[in-house]
Amino acid sequence: MPRETIVSIKETIRGAAALPEEKKKKLLNLLGQLEKEMEGLPAEDRESARKIARAAGTSTRRATGEDEDSHRLGEALDDLSETVTRFEASHPGLVAVVNRIADALSDIGI
Nearest 10 degrees: CA dihedral of 106, 86, 37, 4? Predict the structure, then answer.
C-alpha cells in the first residue's frame, strides 16, 4: 500500500470533528497494524493491496462525511468487502486487520 494512502486516511480520521477521540485512537492503531501487514507483501500482491487501500480510503472518507458521495457509503463498503474477500486466502493477517477496521467503523455507527 502506498504510504501516502495510509497517511491520507489517518489525516481524514484525525480531522473528523464528529468522531470521538477514543474511536480515532482505535482506528489509527488499526491503521498502524494494517501498515505493518502491507509492508510484508510480496511485489506480485501489491496491486491487490492498492485496491484494498483505495477501497478503505473511499469508505473512510464517505463514512466521515469528507466525500461528496457520502450517501453511497454502502457501495464503498461492499467494494471493500469484495476486494478483501478475494485477498483473504493468501493474506489472512492483513484481512483480519481490515475486518477489525470495518468493525470499528461499524461500532461508531458507520
Answer: -80
- Asked if residue 48 lies in contact with residue 95, where contact means CB atoms within 8 angstroms, the answer is no
Q: Distance between terminal CA atoms of the chain?
A: 24
Domain, as residue range, for 10: 3-107
Distances, alpha carbon 69 to alpha carbons 33, 62, 64, 75, 76, in Å: 28, 7, 11, 10, 10
**Mean pLDDT score of the chain:** 81
Specify the pTM. 0.60
Q: What is the DSSP string of 69-98?
A: TGGGHHHHHHHHHHHHHHHHTT-HHHHHHH
Domain total of the chain: 1
- Cell matching residue 16: 473528523
